[in-house]
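Consider one such protein record:
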Amino acid sequence: MNGTPLRLVLDPVGEELDAALACEAEVFLSTYGNTAEEFEREYGPYADHTGFMTVLDEAGSALATTRFIAPGPAGLKTLNDTARAPWGIDGLRSARAAGIDPERTWDVATIAVRRTPGRSTLCSAALYHGIVTAALANGIDSIVMIMDARPRSLLSASGLVPNVLPGTGEGAYLGSPRSIPLWANLHRMFDQQRRTNPESYRLIYQAIGLDGVALPTDWTWPRLAPTVAADDEGSAEPVSV
């Protein structure tokens, strides 16, 4: 751990994955009432192209976790779920209208942060840094997600302002009374953050201030490594400023 109390792990396995899933389950059950059965029903079809990142403490417990869905046979959950109530739209058509290429898009399916005094903000920043860094390192340009109003407001306060997916708006979704389908081009969103909230940009994008978290040295997601190397070699590094 290089003397650093917290670790951000990309693609956890074994006990680290168990810890990540326990964090996600606890946060979503207490916040939205989502059960294990509901999680299996909702996310099971995407398991073959799902990845995780998690922030672990000294004891190996997960303080924050994100689940992301890469392009695959089942598609992206956000674009599929917009066909459901309350939206009832064609998600792929909406993506095309926004200029999204689903084959270069990750679905940020869940973000779970345990309330840990003195650490929650740092863990959230580390998780956001992990999402953008891993996505760009793997040739991903955009993200989509269905986000509850409260975490969306916290994200916006940091200068990260994703766009509303065309044809959608706020509605009830998986226990959240106010959720909305969102999308963002990562390059443009972080360039906007650099201009409007440079302090948060340094923390989240550049990892300046994440000294309390040991970060991965390799951001390549193993399941995507061959594709990135063959299709987009040399273009996956974050944009320089």
In short: The chain has nine helices and nine strands. The chain has one domain: 6-213.
